[in-house]
């Protein structure tokens, strides 16, 4: 995985400057969104002929990681990688509106929909008459009950009247891709949060003096930090493996579901160890609102249960291992 250095540096600079001037907001910051749109980052992976920037998932992953590093909460993944992508592949038109996506149950309802109460439009996915349908609906036409996740991001309940909606059919393969891409998005974000936690811990133990010497000189602290770094590295390795396979095989590799499940499982379990150890390393200061640790520890815990719970993804890994043919498990792992 490689991203142009200048592009990555520009992304970091944009979010660092915004964070310095504005506090994090649970709503979509329209000024920031407009600035990102002018830079071509809102539809980073959209085709150029459709008004996008023509970049790929590696660049998108770097963009998402940059938002996490600087504590910026904004629905770039939901808009670009999920909602607008789905409109493009199903032939439905899109415009400059801010979007999110959700999958409705048979009653026309979805819970914990990211950003639904704060975006302009919601791309709905549902199953009817033996096939999946996709519709792009103004948020004002939906019944939306606001809610939040652990870090205050909108996670809302959406109810839609599906009768008479202008929609397009979507093949099952597209819906499978949507599920996998959604799951991988959260793995990327969790990994970025864990990496930032590692950085904060290293900075803290190197500068904090206790009993006349830095915390980094205490063996017990060294063990805590090494476990943090190892778990974060494992989660990132699994996530990058899934992302690389998705990109290389255009999101249709036979083993991609297994790789995404492994990424989500590793990231979810890593979050438990990293968050616990990091707060032990920081002590009382790490529990204060003023310290930034909670921005990343709570984010990792919130995101690991979205677009599929930890138990769901653990079960996917277990099922794949149990039902693999003789020698098939190694094939899943190695690709």
Automatic annotation (TrEMBL):
Cofactor(s) the protein needs: FAD
Keywords linked to the UniProt accession: FAD, Flavoprotein, Oxidoreductase
Pfam families reported in the protein's UniProt record: Acyl-CoA_dh_1, Acyl-CoA_dh_N
Domain Acyl-CoA dehydrogenase/oxidase N-terminal: 9-87
Domain (Acyl-CoA dehydrogenase/oxidase C-terminal): residue spans on this chain: 186-306
Coiled coil: none
SUPFAM superfamilies, per the entry: Acyl-CoA dehydrogenase C-terminal domain-like, Acyl-CoA dehydrogenase NM domain-like
Recorded family membership: Belongs to the acyl-CoA dehydrogenase family.
Name this protein carries in UniProt: Acyl-CoA dehydrogenase
Organism: Mycobacterium paragordonae
């Amino acid at each position: 995985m490689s991203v142009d250095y200048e592009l990555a540096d520009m992304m970091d600079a944009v979010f660092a400057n915004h964070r310095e001037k504005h506090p994090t907001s649970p709503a979509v910051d329209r000024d920031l969104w407009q600035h990102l749109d002018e830079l071509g980052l809102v539809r980073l992976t959209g085709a150029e002929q459709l008004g996008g920037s023509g970049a790929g998932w590696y660049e998108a992953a770097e963009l998402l990681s940059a938002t996490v590093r600087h504590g910026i909460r904004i629905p770039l993944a939901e808009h670009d990688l999920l909602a607008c992508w789905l409109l493009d592949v199903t032939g439905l038109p899109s415009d400059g509106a801010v979007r999110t996506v959700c999958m409705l149950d048979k009653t026309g309802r979805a819970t914990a929909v990211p950003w639904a109460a704060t975006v302009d439009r919601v791309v709905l996915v549902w199953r009817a008459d033996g096939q999946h349908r996709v519709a792009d609906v103004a948020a004002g036409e939906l019944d939306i009950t606001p809610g939040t996740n652990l870090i205050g991001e909108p996670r809302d309940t959406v109810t839609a009247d599906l009768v008479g909606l202008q929609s397009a059919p979507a093949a099952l393969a597209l819906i499978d891709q949507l599920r996998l891409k959604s799951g991988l998005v959260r793995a990327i974000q969790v990994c970025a949060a864990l990496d930032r936690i590692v950085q904060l811990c290293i900075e803290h133990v190197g500068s904090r003096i206790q009993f006349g010497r830095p915390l980094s000189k205490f063996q017990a602290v060294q063990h805590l930090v090494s476990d943090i770094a190892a778990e974060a590295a494992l989660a990132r390795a699994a996530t990058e493996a899934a992302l690389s396979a998705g990109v290389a095989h255009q999101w249709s590799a036979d083993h991609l579901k297994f790789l995404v499940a492994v990424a989500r499982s590793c990231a979810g379990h890593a979050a438990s160890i990293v968050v616990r150890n990091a707060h032990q390393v920081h002590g009382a200061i790490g529990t204060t609102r003023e310290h930034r640790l909670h921005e990343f520890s709570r984010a990792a815990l919130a995101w690991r249960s979205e677009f599929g719970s930890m138990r769901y993804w653990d079960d996917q890994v277990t099922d794949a291992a149990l039902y693999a043919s003789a020698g098939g498990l190694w094939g899943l792992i190695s690709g």
